[in-house]
Amino acid sequence: MAGLLFVLPMLVLFVVFRFVPTLGAFGLSLTDYKISGEFEFVGVKNYADFFTSTIARNALATTLLYALIYVPLILLIALASALVLHRIVWGSSFFRGTLFLPYVTSFVLAGIIWLWIFDLQGPLNATLGVINLGPVPFLTGAQPMVLTSLAAVSAWRGFGYSMLILLAGLKSIPGELYESARIDGASVGRQFTDITLPLLRPSLFFVLVIETIGAFQVFDTIYVMTGGGPARASYSLVYYLYDSGFKFFNFGYAAAIGVILFVIVFLISMVQRRVLDREEP
Amino acid sequence: MQRKSPITWAHVIATVLTLFTVTPFLAVLVLALSPAYEPTIPVAWPSRFTIDNFIATLSAANFVRWTWNSFVYAGVSVIIILLTAAMAGYAFAKKRFPGRDIIFWSFLATLMVPVQATLIPMFLLVTRMDGVDTMWGLIIPTLANSQAVFLMRQFIRDLPNELFDAAAVDGAGEWRTFWTIVLPLTKPILATLGIFVFLWHWNDFLWPLIIAQSDSMRTLTVGLATLNTESVARAQVMASAFVTVVPCLIIFFALQRHLVSSIAATGIKG
Questions:
Q1: Which of A23, B24, B241, B261 has most Cβ atoms within 10 angstroms of its Cβ?
Q2: Residue of B nearest to A106 (CA)
Q3: A85 Cβ under 8 Å from any chain B Cβ
């Protein structure tokens, strides 16, 4: 029974701050909850409201578009970095460190730095001005432009993690495979498509899912850089949740958005599981 | 045999990527050292460098207060999470008690629930407990950390049972065994976990944003975000931003290898 005593502090924390809020999210989403603590059971009204609201559908579509831009972008940077690091012998730990550096900072800090870089009078537009381009409205232009800029900031801050996971995956591929491929005269390209990609698949799927889930939770950079704008061009699902709860105090409705977010993230994990299970012989 | 240079095309790409990751930090430093309201990069190289912005930042009462809050939020969380996760991890790995597996797997299952999904109920719960705008209201709800418990359990499971049996034979109590055997043996994983928990909390934003509502309760991330929206000179904002990142940079330079190898080995996610 001593075991239970050792688990007890963490168990209490989990019950009060993880299990109860998780069940509470479902419960709250079926109510109209006032900050005073009064509430009224309204059934699935919040969900009905969500799926008939233009703002909600816009937030869902915006988040989806963001994910479609962010996930390929960060995977590409992470994979390229991992491949490059895997090749490097001399100076490998130096480069691994410099590429990983942004990962130890906050999204808020990343947002503040890149707000300046993307500014109409910022360094990026100054550089483009030299070759007579721009100014490009990175954060004030059309939706695809704004979301790409935001995705680039999150990718800058976050790719180090996926890079390290992919690098570990690359290191676990036996070198003999490449040697025998070389003896058979396989080109570098063939080696990549026939050896590296198939054997890296589990790591690639892992980072794909992690980053997709991360994309659906995007908030900090948007809060700092665009405030959801211009004209709701970057109004994500979590931003909508935050606004509904803490600007409009519509707690039941905000809880429903949280449940919808949970379902989306859950489905992504399930799809990944299916795909991976099917692949294992 | 062709001559092999240690420098390859991979180094060229790695250098370009390094410019991409490192240059923004150097730019922040240049901006922070530029005299406020004078032309600076990218328009012109600053006429001179000054530490006035840093002095102003570090002598602003609220900034010092936010830094303190961030240290308390991160520091206290590290200590409590390490202790409670080590205790739980030890019990899950080496003890038998009813419901052990169900409890362990239900801890892990919470990984599936994004924190944003439970944000509203968590906030209302802390409101009911009168914890809004208090340090304990900020810290305690973030302590239920399944990654920490999972890592501790995996690490302790691989320790030989004989160590614990020997302690029991020597008549050491459960609590003494924990302090004199479990904690010393788990130092490496405690160090790794400590770094990650510190970074998670130091860089955390959404939870402090909703809980720490008054100016004096803010953490650095929240304070920085508000500085950014107020009409504060850019040089000043950048000096504050740079100070904010200093603890992260210290951790990075001191423990980079440690961080990197533990992500590769455990998949721990910041």
A1: B241
A2: B203
A3: yes
**pLDDT tens by residue, A187-196:** 888 888 888 8
pTM of the model: 0.91
Confidence of residue A280 (pLDDT cuts 50, 70, 90): low
Question: In chain B, which residue's Cα lies nearest the Cα of A246?
Answer: B210
Going by C-alpha positions, the residue among A253, A236, A221, A279 that lies closest to residue A39 is A253
| pLDDT tens track for B95-137 | 888 989 999 999 999 988 999 999 999 999 999 999 999 999 9
Handedness of CA B73, B189, A272, A222 (dihedral sign): positive
Count of other CB atoms within 10 angstroms of residue B66:
27
Query: Does B184 reach chain A within 8 Å, measured CB to CB?
Result: no
**Could you read off the pLDDT of B180-192 as tens digits, one per residue?**
888 998 988 898 8
CA distance B33 to chain A (A): 15
For residue B139, CA distances in Å to A17, B77, B89, B205 come to 11, 6, 21, 13
Q: What is the pLDDT of residues A69-84, one digit of tens each?
A: 999 999 999 999 999 9
> Kind and range of the H or E element at A32?
strand A31-33
A100 touches chain B (CB under 8 A): yes
Instruction: Compute the radius of gyration of chain A from its Cα atoms.
Output: 23
Query: Which has the higher per-residue pLDDT, B260 or B84?
Result: B84
Nearest to A6 by CA among B152, B111, B198: B152
Q: What is the pLDDT of residues A121-157, one digit of tens each?
A: 889 999 998 898 878 999 999 999 999 999 999 999 9
Scan for tokens 């418990």, then name that residue.
B149
B120 and A258 in contact (C-beta within 8 Å)? yes
Q: Are residues A18 and B110, on separate chains, in Cβ contact within 8 Å? A: yes
CB-neighbour burial class of residue A176 (10 A; exposed 0-12, middle 13-18, buried 19+)? exposed
Strand, coil or helix: A41: strand
Which residue of B31, B116, B156, B177 to mutate against A (max A Cβ within 10 Å)? B116
* Candidates A107, A213, A255; nearest CB to B121: A255
Q: Do A3 and B125 touch (CB under 8 A)?
A: no
Q: Report the pLDDT value the prediction gives residue A281, as an integer from 0 to 100.
A: 47
Global ipTM: 0.91
User: Would you call A137 helix, strand, or coil by DSSP?
Assistant: coil
Domains of chain A: 53-279 (1.10.3720.10)
Identity at A32, one-letter amino acid code: D
Domains in chain B (CATH in brackets) are 1-50 (no CATH), 58-231+242-266 (1.10.3720.10)
Q: Which residues of B touch A135 (CB under 8 A)?
A: none
Q: Which of A88, A246, A261 sits opposite B11 (nearest CB)?
A: A88
- Token look-up 């533990």 returns B262
pLDDT digits (tens, 9 = 90+) for B143-168: 999 999 999 999 999 888 888 877 77
Q: How many CA atoms, within 13 angstroms, populate the side-chain half-sphere of residue A249? A: 7
Cβ pair A13:B41 closer than 8 A: no
